[in-house]
Write a structure and sequence with these properties.
Elements lengths: L1 E5 L11 E4 L13 E6 L4 E11 L14 E2 L6 H16 L3 H8 L10 E7 L3 H13 L3 H12 L2 E3 H8 L3 H9 L3 E7 L19 H15 L5 E6 L5 H14 L3 E5 L7 H11 L3 E3 L6 H12 L5 E4 L11 E7 L16 H12 L2 E6 L4 H8 L4 E5 L10 E6 H6 L8 H13 L2 E6 L8 E3 L16 E3 L3 E3 L6 E3 L12 E3 L4 H11 L5 E4 L9 H10 L5 E4 L12 E7 L12 H13 L10 E6 L5 H8 L2 H15 L6 E9 L2 H18 L6 E6 L5 E2 L2 E10 L2 H17 L6 E7 L6
Parallel strand pairs: 9-14, 9-15, 10-12, 10-13, 11-12, 13-14, 16-26, 17-24, 17-25, 23-24, 25-26
Antiparallel strand pairs: 1-2, 1-4, 3-4, 3-5, 6-7, 6-8, 18-22, 19-20, 20-21, 27-30, 27-31, 28-30, 29-30
The structure holds adenosine-5'-diphosphate and zinc ion (2 copies).
Length: 742
C-alpha cells in the first residue's frame, strides 16, 4: 500500500501530491487527514505532511519511493481536522481531493501583506529638546519639524508624518543615521471593517427566548453536542438568541462561526454582533481578495478573533477550539456550493462539528424540508419561538385570484384590491413594497383564464417551453408539442408569463402619478453598494414604493412599510424543479414578513392564478406545519428529497454526439452496479439551456432511498470515468440533491 501525501497545504503548490510507501507497523493505522512525518527532498529532511489518499499501485519507480516515517505526535492539529473534513467532502460530493482541500484550507497567494512603517524617537525628552535647538540653530527646518512632532508623540506612522510635515526620505534617513530615530515595521492585517463600535445589548429575554437558551445551555454543560433547529417567525428574536449562545460558548474558551447568506450580511447585522462582541468578531465576504481572506485566517490562528461571520466559506475558519456553528436562514439555496465539490454548508457544518466536538444551531422562519424532517426523525432537536419579540402582530394576508380579475375585465398586472390599498397608503404617507417573484423562472406555460399549468406526467414538475415549439421535462426528458389552447378550459390565454420589474415600474408610475418609485433588480444594483444604496434610500423614506425581485425580501427592516404586494406568486410555483412549492412558500412567507415591522400593523396582497395550491394557501395562513405536511406527502409520493436522495450527473462537452453516447454508457454502467434495482435512473435529459457558447449539456439523475448506496455508485462512476479515455473530452460533475435545475 502507498499513501498520497501533501507536504504543505497552506501554499499554492497544493497540486503536488507525493507518494510514500506505508511500513508494516503503520498499515491500518494511517487515515486520510492524519499528519505524518516523511523524508523530503535530497537531504531527506524530516518534514510534516498530510495523508490525502491511498493507492495499491506505485505511481513511478518503486525503488525510489520513500517510506512514511511515523505519525506526527500532535496529530489533531487544526489542519488535520480540515483535511479530514475535505476527505469527507470528496466522498460525499464528488471531485478530487485537491479540489476539496482548496475549498477548506486558506491558501497563501503571492500577495504581500501591507506593512505599516512607523518612526520612533530614540532620545529622551531632554536630549531631544537639546537636539531640536541644534537643528533650529543650523536652520535645518525639516529635521526640526520632524523632531518636534516626535517630541509630542514619540511614535508616529511613517506615511502620515512624512506627508503631513512634508519631510523627505533623506531627512528621515539622516536622523536615523544620527541615532535620533529608528524605523519600525509591523505587519498589519487588512481588516475589512473600518468602523467599530456599538453598545452591548442588555435587552431582557422573552420567556420563549430564555427557554430556548436554557435547553441549549443545559445540554452544552452536560457535554452534549448536537444539531438544533431554531424555528421562529421573522422578528421572533433568533439573532438575540444566537448571540447569547455564542457569548456563553465564548466564555468557556471556545470559538464560534456564524453563517449568514451573503445578501443578508448587511451593515445592520454586522453591527449587532460588533455591539456585543467588539473586536473579537471578524467578517468574511465574497468581495474580499484572497490576500484579505488569508489575513483573516492568520488573525484567527493567532487567537485574535473568536467569532467569524460570513457566507458559506466562513465554515472553514480554522478555529482551534470550535464550540458552535450557527447557520442563519438555513433554508437559503446559497448554502449549496455551485462549484466542485458541490457541498451543502448545512451537512458539512454538521460533519465539521462532529469532528471538532461542537454544536450546530440552524435558524429559520421557514425551515428547509431537510431540517424539519431531520427533527421529525429525531436527528435534530427542534427549538421554537412562536411570537415576535417586539410584540408586533403578524400581518393580515389577502389572496387575490387573478383569474377572476380577467373575468371581471381587469387585465392589468395589478388587481383592484392591491390598487385600492396602494392608494390608501400613498394618502397616509406609508410605504409600499411590490415584490415580483421571478425566482426559478424557466419558461413554464400556464393558462391565465383557469390557472392550468402543463406538467410532466412522470415527474409532476412543470414542463419548460424550448425553442422550436416543444415542451420538455428537465428530469426525464419527456417532450410534447406546445399548446395554443388550454387543454383544461379551452381559453387561448395560455402561454409563458412575461413581466419584468421595469414594466411594472412604468405601469406603477402611470397608475399612481406623484408616487416616488424605486426599483431594485439586477440592472439597478450592478454597481458596488448599489443594493445597499437603494435600501438605504428607501429606509430613509426617500420613496413611497419599492419595486423589486427577491432581493428586496431580505436585509433591512422598514418600519414604515405597511403594505406588501406580491405580483405573480405563481412564477416560482411552476419552476421546473421539485423544490418549486418549497421555494414559493418561503418567498411568500418572507415577503409577507416585511409588512408591519413597525408599530402599525401590516397588510399583504398575494396575487395568484392558483389560490388553491397548498404553498399559497399555507403561506397566506402563515402555517408552516400545514405546508410541511402537504409538501412531504408530495415528496414521499414522488420519491424526492428529503425522503429519498437525488444524485445529478452533469455532463458538458463540445461534441454533442459523444456526450449523448457517454450519457448512455454511464446510464448502463449505473444499471450494472445497481443489480438489485434499488435505484431509479432517470434521463438523460437535455437541460433548459441545452447548449451554452458551443458547449452542450446533458444530465442524468439517480434516485434512491439509500444515501450510502448512491455514494458507492458515485465512487464507481468516478473510477470508471477516470480510466475510460472516452470521457476525456467532457466534464462530468456530481451534484447531490441539486438546488437548481442544471
Ligand atoms: P430574528 O432574528 O428572529 O428576525 P431579531 O433577533 O432580529 O429576530 O429580533 C427582532 C427585533 O426584536 C430586533 O429589533 C431585536 O432587537 C428585538 N428583540 C429581540 N429580542 C428582544 C427582547 N427580548 N426584547 C425586546 N426586543 C427584542
Ligand atoms: Zn385554462
Ligand atoms: Zn419528467
Amino acid at each position: 500500500m502507498y499513501a498520497d501525501i501533501i507536504i504543505d497545504i497552506t501554499h499554492e503548490k497544493l497540486d503536488k501530491v507525493f507518494q510514500y510507501s506505508i511500513p508494516s507497523e503503520l498499515e491500518g493505522v494511517l487515515q486520510i487527514g492524519m499528519e505524518v512525518v516523511v523524508p523530503f527532498g535530497k537531504g531527506n529532511k524530516e518534514t510534516r505532511g498530510y495523508v490525502t489518499g491511498f493507492s495499491d499501485k506505485a505511481g513511478y519507480d518503486e525503488t525510489k519511493i520513500k517510506p512514511v516515517l511515523r505519525t506526527a505526535k500532535d496529530s489533531m492539529a487544526i489542519e488535520a481536522k480540515l483535511v479530514a473534513l475535505a476527505a469527507w467532502m470528496k466522498e460525499h460530493y464528488g471531485g478530487t481531493m485537491i479540489q476539496a482541500l482548496k475549498t477548506v484550507i486558506p491558501i497563501k497567494k503571492q500577495e504581500r501583506a501591507k506593512e505599516k512603517k512607523s518612526i520612533r524617537l530614540l532620545l529622551r525628552e531632554e536630549e531631544g529638546k537639546r537636539q531640536l535647538d541644534i537643528f533650529l540653530h543650523k536652520n535645518q527646518k525639516a529635521r526640526a519639524r520632524l523632531l518636534a512632532a516626535l517630541l509630542d508623540e514619540p511614535r508616529q506612522e511613517y506615511d502620515l508624518v512624512t506627508k503631513k510635515l512634508n519631510v523627505t526620505r533623506s531627512v528621515v534617513r539622516s536622523l536615523e543615521e544620527m541615532g535620533v530615530i529608528t524605523l519600525e515595521t509591523e505587519k498589519v492585517f487588512r481588516s475589512p471593517i473600518s468602523q467599530k463600535g456599538g453598545r452591548r445589548q442588555t435587552a431582557e429575554y422573552t420567556q420563549e427566548q430564555r427557554h430556548v437558551i436554557d435547553v441549549f445551555w443545559e445540554d452544552y454543560n452536560r457535554g452534549i453536542r448536537k444539531t438544533y433547529l431554531l424555528y421562529g417567525v421573522t422578528g421572533s428574536g433568533k439573532t438575540e438568541v444566537y448571540m447569547e449562545m455564542i457569548g456563553r460558548v465564548l466564555e468557556k474558551g471556545y470559538q464560534a462561526i456564524v453563517l449568514i447568506p451573503e445578501i443578508a450580511l448587511t451593515y445592520q447585522t454586522v453591527m449587532r454582533f460588533y455591539g456585543r462582541f467588539g473586536d473579537r468578531v471578524s467578517i468574511l465576504n465574497s468581495r474580499m481578495s484572497q490576500g484579505e481572506r488569508y489575513d483573516q485566517m492568520e488573525l484567527v490562528k493567532a487567537g485574535k478573533v473568536d467569532v467569524m461571520i460570513g457566507p458559506r466559506s466562513a465554515l472553514f475558519t480554522p478555529f482551534p477550539r470550535l464550540g458552535l456553528i450557527v447557520i442563519d436562514e438555513e433554508h437559503e439555496t446559497t448554502y449549496k456550493s455551485g462549484q466542485v465539490p458541490r457541498f451543502h454548508a448545512r451537512e458539512t457544518a454538521i460533519e465539521r462539528a462532529g469532528i471538532e466536538g461542537a454544536s450546530v444551531v440552524l435558524g429559520s422562519a421557514t425551515p428547509s424540508l431537510e431540517a424539519f424532517y431531520a427533527c421529525a426523525c429525531g436527528r435534530f432537536q427542534l427549538l421554537r419561538l412562536r411570537n415576535r419579540a417586539g410584540m408586533q402582530k403578524l400581518p393580515t394576508v389577502y389572496v387575490v385570484d387573478m383569474r377572476k380579475e380577467i373575468k371581471a375585465g381587469n387585465r392589468s398586472i395589478i388587481s383592484d384590491r392591491l390598487r385600492t390599498l396602494i392608494e390608501a397608503r400613498l394618502e397616509k404617507k406609508e410605504q409600499i413594497m411590490l415584490f415580483l417573484n421571478r425566482r426559478g423562472y424557466a419558461g413554464f406555460v400556464s393558462c391565465r383564464a383557469c390557472g392550468y399549468v402543463v406538467k410532466c406526467p412522470h415527474c409532476d414538475v412543470s414542463l419548460s417551453a424550448h425553442r422550436g415549439g416543444k415542451l420538455v421535462c428537465h428530469y426525464c426528458g419527456h417532450e410534447e408539442p406546445q399548446v395554443s389552447r388550454c387543454p383544461s378550459c379551452g381559453s387561448t390565454y395560455i402561454g409563458g408569463f412575461k413581466a419584468g420589474t421595469q414594466q411594472i415600474e412604468e405601469l406603477v408610475m402611470r397608475q399612481f402619478p406623484g408616487a416616488r418609485v424605486l426599483r431594485m433588480d439586477m440592472d439597478t444594483t450592478r454597481t458596488k453598494d448599489g443594493h445597499e444604496k437603494i435600501l438605504e434610500a428607501f429606509a430613509s423614506e426617500e420613496a413611497d414604493i419599492l419595486i423589486g425581485t427577491q432581493m428586496i425580501v431580505k436585509g433591512h427592516d422598514f418600519p414604515n412599510v405597511t403594505l406588501v404586494g406580491i405580483l405573480a406568486a405563481d412564477m416560482s410555483l411552476y419552476s421546473n424543479d421539485y423544490r418549486a412549492g418549497e421555494r414559493t412558500f418561503q418567498l411568500l412567507t418572507q415577503a409577507a414578513g416585511r409588512a408591519g415591522r413597525g408599530k402599525s400593523g401590516g397588510e399583504v396582497v398575494i396575487q395568484t392564478y392558483s389560490p388553491e395550491h397548498y404553498s399559497i394557501e399555507m403561506a397566506a395562513l402563515q402555517d408552516y406545519e400545514g405546508f410541511y405536511e402537504a409538501e412531504m406527502a408530495y415528496r414521499r409520493l414522488m420519491g424526492y428529497p428529503p425522503v429519498e436522495q437525488l444524485l445529478a450527473i452533469l455532463m458538458t462537452g463540445e461534441q454533442e454526439e459523444l456526450l449523448e453516447t457517454a450519457a448512455k454508457y454511464l446510464k448502463e454502467f449505473a444499471l450494472r452496479i445497481d443489480r438489485n434495482r434499488r435505484l431509479k435512473i432517470i434521463g438523460p435529459a437535455s437541460p433548459y439551456v441545452a447548449k451554452v457558447s458551443d458547449v452542450y449539456r446533458r444530465v442524468l439523475y439517480l434516485k434512491g432511498g439509500d444515501h450510502e448506496m448512491l455514494i458507492r455508485v458515485k465512487n464507481h462512476m468516478e473510477q470508471y470515468i477516470e480510466i475510460n479515455k472516452g470521457f476525456d473530452t467532457m466534464r462530468i460533475q456530481f451534484d447531490f440533491n441539486p438546488m437548481d435545475v442544471f
